[in-house]
Design brief:
Distance between the termini: 31 Å
Number of strands: 6
Number of helices: 10
Strand order of the largest sheet: 4-3-5-6
Strand content: 5-15%
Order of helices and strands: HHHHHHEEHHEEEHHE
Helix content: 40-55%
Largest sheet: 4 strands, mixed
C-alpha cells in the first residue's frame, strides 16, 4: 500500500498578504536606488539582466491584480492545488520570458512601475476575508490564498537572485521566507511520499519523505538538513545537490538521504 499523503498545510491568508507586501517593499526599496550600470548587469537567470529581473518581480505582484480583474472560474474547487503549483511552472518559462521582455521595454521607469503594481495590489486584495476566491492563473485556477503563497516563493527566490547579481543584502521578510520554505518542503514530501528520510530546514520546516522503513522514535537513520536559502536554491534549481554537499551547505546522513533525483522541484 502506498504511503498516505498528509493533509495540506494551512496558511493564514492575511499573514501571507502582509508577507507578500513586506517582501515586495524590500525589493522596491533596493530597485529604486539602482544605477543604469547596475540594471544592465547579468543575472544567473539565463539572458535576463537585473532590469529584466526587477521587471519580473513587479509582474509577480501585478499578476494578483490581473487575475482578480478576470471573471472567476466556474466551479467550487480550484483546478490546481498549492502543491501542484511548483512543478507546473516550468512549462510556462518561455511565455514568462516574453512577457518580462515586453514589460521591461514598455516600462523604463521602474519606480513608477513598482508604485503602480503595489497600489493595485493594495486596492484589489483587501486586508480582510478568507482568500477563497478562485483566480484564473497562468497554470490553472487557484484559490487567492494559495496564489499569494506562490508569490512568496517568487519574491523570495528572486530577492536571492538580485542579491547574488549585485552583491547586495536585500532583507527577507521572515514570514515570506517561512512560507516559501514550507511550500517547497511540502512539495518534496508530496512528490516522494514516505517516512524513511527526514528533511529539516530549521527553523521553518521538517518533513518526511521517500518510501521505505518508517522512523518512529529517536534519531532518524536518514536525515537531510540545510538552511532556508540553500533549500530554496536546491528546490528551484539555482544550485545542485552535489555542489551543495561539496560546499557543506547540506548535511546528509544515511543510505537513503540522497535527494538528487528529486530536485529541482520547479524549473
Amino acid at each position: 500500500m502506498p504511503p498516505a499523503k498528509k493533509r495540506p498545510r494551512a496558511y493564514d491568508h492575511l499573514r501571507t498578504r502582509t508577507a507578500v507586501l513586506a517582501q515586495f517593499g524590500h525589493v522596491r526599496d533596493a530597485v529604486v536606488t539602482l544605477t543604469p550600470e547596475q540594471l544592465a548587469r547579468p543575472t544567473r537567470l539565463g539572458d535576463w539582466t537585473v532590469r529584466d529581473l526587477a521587471a519580473h518581480m513587479a509582474m509577480v505582484l501585478g499578476s494578483v491584480s490581473r487575475s482578480l480583474a478576470l471573471p472567476e472560474p466556474p466551479g467550487p474547487k480550484p483546478g490546481l492545488t498549492l502543491l501542484q503549483w511548483p512543478p507546473a511552472t516550468a512549462a510556462h518559462a518561455d511565455r514568462i520570458a516574453d512577457d518580462v521582455e515586453e514589460l521591461a521595454t514598455g516600462h523604463p521607469d521602474l519606480t513608477a512601475l513598482y508604485d503602480e503594481v503595489e497600489a493595485g495590489f493594495l486596492a484589489d486584495v483587501p486586508a480582510s476575508g478568507t482568500g477563497d476566491r478562485l483566480l484564473p492563473t497562468r497554470v490553472g485556477s487557484m484559490r487567492l490564498a494559495d496564489f499569494l503563497v506562490t508569490r512568496t516563493v517568487e519574491l523570495t527566490a528572486h530577492t536571492d537572485d538580485l542579491n547574488e547579481a549585485l552583491g547586495l543584502e536585500i532583507p527577507y521578510d521572515r514570514q515570506a521566507l517561512a512560507a516559501c520554505t514550507r511550500l517547497l518542503a511540502d512539495t518534496l514530501a508530496d512528490r516522494a511520499p514516505g517516512g524513511s528520510v527526514e528533511v529539516r530546514v530549521p527553523p521553518f520546516a521538517v518533513v518526511q519523505c521517500i518510501g521505505g522503513p518508517k522512523h518512529t522514535r529517536g534519531t532518524p537513520p536518514n536525515v537531510v538538513e540545510t538552511a532556508p536559502l540553500t533549500w530554496i536554491r536546491l528546490a528551484t534549481g539555482r544550485t545542485g545537490w552535489a555542489r551543495a554537499l561539496e560546499n557543506a551547505e547540506v548535511s546528509a546522513s544515511g543510505e537513503r538521504a540522497d535527494l538528487n533525483a528529486l530536485l529541482p522541484l520547479m524549473g
